[in-house]
Design goal:
The complex is a heterodimer of chains A (108) and B (234).
Chain A (H helix, E strand, L loop, with lengths): L2 H25 L8 H23 L10 H17 L4 H17 L2
Helix pairs in contact in A: 3-4
Chain B lengths: L3 H11 L2 H19 L4 H10 L3 H12 L4 H11 L3 H12 L6 H7 L5 H10 L8 H26 L5 H21 L4 H18 L6 H16 L1 H6 L1
Helix pairs in contact in B: 1-9, 2-9, 2-10, 3-9, 4-5, 8-9, 8-10, 11-12
The chains are: A mainly alpha (108), B mainly alpha (234).
Chain lengths: 108, 234
């Protein structure tokens, strides 16, 4: 893997990513916040983000794939429970989730 | 006219949990790039110019797997396609007549899941003319933080254990999850989120590359049309 290959890959990733953002700016020019299209796109955006989250948790790549799927699922449930039990405290939610995840993977 | 106060408020908003949520994964990403044969400047360049973590991972993984340049471009494009509807959604929220059109093309570089959710959480409390500079501070700081954390991960990841690194990577999806549920104030959004998660799992069995995009479009469209009355009332 040469340096040129890596730089070309980074360049292509940058172009592919910025193309999505630039097309978004271009397409947004005639959309106002009260229109049905705006509300539909918000639903699609949050639907895609939800799909991304479930893919990362259930079918991860990289070092997360070295962990047990049960640990990721249980830790996700614990995250949500802690978040709501502690008055929607983000720090508590994350702390409880990561602690559960690490304990289940490396200490039990 | 540039509002330093709004910009600072945006930076202040990003400083803390949002920066931690994104920074922890960027740190782990820096460690991953080091183990994959990148050098420090290449790691810096990836976060500086791309700033969209799932796509950055896909870029490195596709390249390491021996994919062609066309493979890399298409894989990253599909992975980061979520940025298109997110940008279409965010720009009308921020838009103000005092800013020329080209500035939004610059600002768009800072749109990512963390900045998008955090901007939506506060935008109703901001004056319309302040939103651009506020988002510049919020998104710009998250971007800056992401670049620094990638370089830190590359440089000092040997000082932390492998288990700790895995824990850092897990922070990102659960932070996204918390951000998602904290924004569910309408039935159509709740429905879209639940259906998006279910559809993604089912579709992954048949088409892993397209599962996220199809699941998101299908779930969002269903959520929108099922609660059409709610849309008309709001």
């Amino acid at each position: 893997m040469t340096a040129n290959t890596i730089y070309t890959a980074i360049f292509l990733a940058t172009c592919a990513t910025y193309l999505c953002r630039a097309m978004g700016v271009f397409s947004a020019k005639n959309i106002n916040t009260n229109s049905p299209v705006f509300n539909w796109i918000k639903c699609v955006s949050i639907g895609i983000i939800s799909a991304v989250i479930s893919k990362i948790i259930l079918f991860p790549s990289g070092i997360l794939s070295e962990t047990e799927s049960e640990s990721r699922i249980v830790a996700t449930i614990v995250t949500l429970l802690a978040y709501f039990l502690f008055k929607k405290n983000v720090i508590f939610g994350i702390f409880a989730g990561v602690t559960t995840f690490l304990l289940m993977n490396f200490y039990f | 006219m540039f509002s330093l106060i709004s910009f600072r408020q945006g930076v202040s908003h990003a400083f803390g949990v949002p920066a931690l949520g994104l920074g922890s994964s960027m740190f782990a990403f820096g460690a991953y790039l080091k183990s994959s044969g990148f050098d420090l400047f290449q790691s810096f360049a990836s976060s500086f110019f791309t700033f969209a973590l799932p796509g950055q991972f896909v870029m490195a993984e596709t390249m390491l797997a021996g994919g062609t340049f066309l493979n890399i471009f298409l894989a990253v494009f599909l992975t980061n396609a979520r940025l298109f509807p997110m940008t279409v959604n965010l720009i009308p929220i921020i838009r103000h007549s005092s800013h020329s059109k080209w500035k939004y093309y610059f600002l768009a570089h800072f749109i990512a899941v963390t900045s998008w959710f955090n901007m939506f959480a506060v935008h109703k409390q901001l004056q319309q003319q302040d939103k651009f500079d506020y988002f510049l501070g919020l998104g710009g700081f998250l971007w800056f933080n992401a670049v620094i954390c990638t370089m830190l991960g590359f440089s000092i990841s040997h000082l932390v254990s492998h288990e700790f690194l895995i824990g850092l990577v897990f922070i990102n999806p659960i932070y996204f999850l918390i951000m998602t549920v904290s924004n569910l104030n309408e039935k159509k959004l709740t429905t879209s989120v639940i259906l998006g998660a279910v559809f993604s799992v089912v579709l992954y069995q048949y088409t892993p590359e397209w599962s996220v995009l199809i699941a998101g479009i299908a779930s969002g469209t269903l959520g929108f049309f099922i609660f059409k009355k709610e849309n008309n009332d709001s």
